[in-house]
Amino acid sequence: MELTTVWFFIVGVLLIGYFVLDGFDFGVGMALPFVSRDDTDRRVVINTIGPVWDLNETWLIVAGACLFAAFPEWYATMFSGFYLALLLILVALIFRGVSFEYRHQGKGREWTRWFDQFIFWGSLLPPLLWGTAFANLAQGLPIRTMDNGGWIYEGTLLTLLNLYGLLGGVALMLLCFTHGLVFIALKTSGEIRDRSRALAKKVGLATILVAAVFLAWTILQHLDNPMLPVVAACAIVAALALVAGWVANAVGREGRAFACNAATIVFALLTIFMALFPNLMVSSIDPAESMSIEGAASSQNTLVLMTWVAVFTMPLVLAYQAWTYWIFRKRLSRESIPQGAH
């Protein structure tokens, strides 16, 4: 296998890891006003991700750095074409991260309420916009090659807000919401757990419906794609895992439900990546103008160096993250929140 193809899948794995891990962080933030009855409940919910949310976001940073180093043309074209969408995501992530750190400063009820709102909207907007962006990648974008080399995006933010793109955004947002609710149920006890499980059943049904339409539409858009069998297989596995996760949650098996939801995200994103392969961006103007993996990759020497760095560093990163989750594996309850703490 060529190193260019290897790095296409490495970037894909990093992005999938980001959405699996930060996906339930987003879901927890979206669930905050729905499963909490008072400030103690809200502190319990936030504490479920308190030790890990910033670690989960580093996957996005690493994925972005690898994307820049391995496929600079892809990085440049996406960041110029998706500039406003990515700026909105960045602003939302900043407000969300600041809110986790500042809401507990004890400046009064209004202070806390504002930061809770920032957590909610800062958790809802990123998956909505990310899903819209990835759906547009699968559908094709108005890009063309330039005379001096490289590609240029000829659309606007409104170009991304088409029906298929928005459906992908809503599907990912609902999937993250369900993922987060199941994680809260997995990490808490008592009434918060019960409310999260009950809401996950309702949101999960909407997620199944929207995701089924999106995945079916994705398959129909790629009937002439040589990768259609792989695309269809990934979409079917994603759908089955989502249904299995809903059933597991309904019978009180939160661990299995969480694993199934994680598998849903993995195979849903694999559906997108397989629909793209062997391209990085498909041109809706002219398929001949599409950005191929080979055409957008860095030099062979750069990819070789990056491969050796990845071989030595990735096991350490994975081991550290696994250790962190193991240390903070216990369930939380209202009794675990110190009285009088902010």
In words, what does this structure look like?
The protein is mainly alpha-helical. The protein is 76% helix and 3% strand. It contains 13 helices and 4 strands. The protein has helices at residues 3-35, 39-47, 53-70, 72-81, 83-102, 109-139, 157-160, 163-187, 191-221, 228-250, 254-276, 293-296, 300-327; strands at 143-145, 151-153, 279-281, 291-292. Strands 1-2 form a two-stranded antiparallel ribbon. The protein has a two-stranded antiparallel sheet with strand order 3-4. Helix 3 (53-70) runs antiparallel to helix 13, helix 8 (163-187) packs antiparallel against helix 9 and helix 9 runs antiparallel to helix 10 (228-250). The mean pLDDT is 90.
Structural class: mainly alpha
Helical content (DSSP H or I, runs of 4+): over 70%
Q: How would you sum up the major sheet?
A: 2 strands, antiparallel
Which ranges are low-confidence, i.e. pLDDT below 50, for 5 or more consecutive residues?
A: none
The number of helices is 13
Adjacency order of strands in the biggest sheet = 1-2
Number of domains: 1
Mean pLDDT rating: 90
Would you count the extended β strands for me? 4
Shape: globular
Give Rg in angstroms: 20 Å
Give the termini separation: 54 Å
Instruction: Note the beta-strand portion.
Output: under 5%
Oligomer: single chain
Sequence of secondary-structure elements:
HHHHHHEEHHHHHEEHH
Lay out the secondary structure.
Elements: H1 3-35, H2 39-47, H3 53-70, H4 72-81, H5 83-102, H6 109-139, E1 143-145, E2 151-153, H7 157-160, H8 163-187, H9 191-221, H10 228-250, H11 254-276, E3 279-281, E4 291-292, H12 293-296, H13 300-327
Antiparallel strand pairs: 1-2, 3-4
Helix pairs in contact: 1-2, 1-3, 1-6, 1-8, 1-11, 3-4, 3-13, 5-6, 6-8, 6-11, 8-9, 8-11, 9-10, 10-11
